[in-house]
Amino acid sequence: MDGSIKSGTTGRSVTLQIPIFYKLFVSMLFVAVIPIALIGLMSMGDTEGIVAAIGLPGTVFLLTLVTLGLVVMWSFFLATSITSPITQLSEVARSVSMGDLRNSEVKVMTNDEIGDLAASFNRMINSYKILDALSREDGK
Amino acid sequence: MRLCDAVTMVLKEELGYSAGVFLQRCTKKSLGKSPDLLTLDDLPALADACAGAIGQTLGKEVAGRVRERILSLR
User: Fold this and answer.
1) Are the beta carbons of B22 and A130 separated by less than 8 Å?
2) Which residue of B has its CA nearest to A103?
3) Res A16: pLDDT
4) Closest in B16, B25, B57 to A123, CB measured
5) In which residue ranges of chain B is pLDDT below 70?
6) A7 three-state secondary structure
7) Phi, psi torsion values for A100, nearest 5 degrees
8) Closest chain B CA to residue A128
9) DSSP alpha helices (H): ranges in B1-74?
10) What's the average model confidence in pLDDT over A17-26?
11) How many other CB atoms sit within 10 Å of the CB of residue A10?
């Protein structure tokens, strides 16, 4: 991993290349900082009204709920963005390993480490198809 | 860098490991000579031949990219 965040081009569209390393790193920081940030916001703002209205346990519960909601949403987004292309790659690899070369192209949707892996996988499959075609030609 | 090495590198971008043997077959079939003897004048014919062969196996999109890249070596 080169560890860089840079813009790349895939066909006509321009995508921002953020390595998975940074996605995970930032998300861990994000999760760790949310409760502290919320407590900080509460301490800076006029929270007496909220505390008076719903009580201290209620305020803590509210903070916990907001934190939990944010963390669940962020985790779901992150997990999906990482596992979805891996699942697709895995399905294609399984069908290729069984000798089925139809629909063996993996769509490179991301421009990160998994995108690189998919591009290399496609190149490997292309190589296999070409060698297969040449050997069939020899057999004729 | 020799021209055949440059073409092989271009083909490797799409075909990977099979680029060398593919170029050899394609050059021999379309131009009737070894890849070592390729000249710049051979590139258009080679690009068409490679694109034709690749198009049958990998589709027109890959074939078009390969054709453009080979022609860009001129």
Assistant:
1) yes
2) B58
3) 54
4) B16
5) none
6) strand
7) -95, 105
8) B18
9) 3-15, 19-31, 43-58, 60-71
10) 82
11) 14
